[in-house]
Amino acid sequence: MVKLDVLLKADLENVTNLRLPEDENWYFVLEFEGERKEVYLTPAERMQIPNSRGEACMVLGSKDSNKAASVTFLKSQSYSKSGTFAPIATFECRGCELLEFQPHGGWQCESTVSDQTFEDIDLTEGDWAEYDERGNESVTVYSVQSRIARS
Question: How far apart are CA 52 and CA 2, in angstroms?
Fold first, then answer.
């Protein structure tokens, strides 16, 4: 079992509390039985781990043996530390390892110049821009990077 943090770094302009909700798909590259696989999981989902009393948000089975691997979501938090790597989530992995986090769509954030909330932000290309009409300012998230680190 290993606990891994998903770390995010982004430059934020007039934005705070950038977050990916637990009911959205989170995209990863993981290693399972020596192979790299692109997968997505939804932290809010729960499935039974075979031959266990536990639950996880993702369970992988082996074709060659009865081995099962699982990824369990432990916690998440919003990102507000512009230009600095900071944890946005922690996962527990058994029998596999998260190697890379790939930001896609579904993100949310709040404006720092008004009470406006923005939803369904797509960070696939590494940046996002919008205009906060209530605050009369642009809001942007750019230079998005991520990495996985042991917790």
Answer: 18
Return d(Cα 10, Cα 32) in angstroms, integer: 29
CA 22, CA 85: separation in Å to the nearest integer? 20
Q: Show the tokens assigned to 59.
A: 């369970």
**Cβ contact 9:144 at 8 Å:** yes
pLDDT in tens, the chain (151 residues): 899 999 999 999 999 999 999 999 999 999 998 999 999 999 999 999 888 888 999 999 877 667 789 999 999 999 999 999 999 999 999 999 999 999 999 999 999 999 999 999 999 999 999 999 999 999 999 999 999 999 9
User: What kind and span of H or E run contains 36?
Assistant: strand 35-41
How far apart are the C-alpha atoms of 6 and 87, rounded to whole Å? 6
For residues 28 and 97, the answer to whether their CB atoms sit within 8 Å is no
**Displacement of CA 115 from its chain's centroid (Å):** 25
Nearest of 114, 118, 137 to residue 128 by alpha carbon: 118
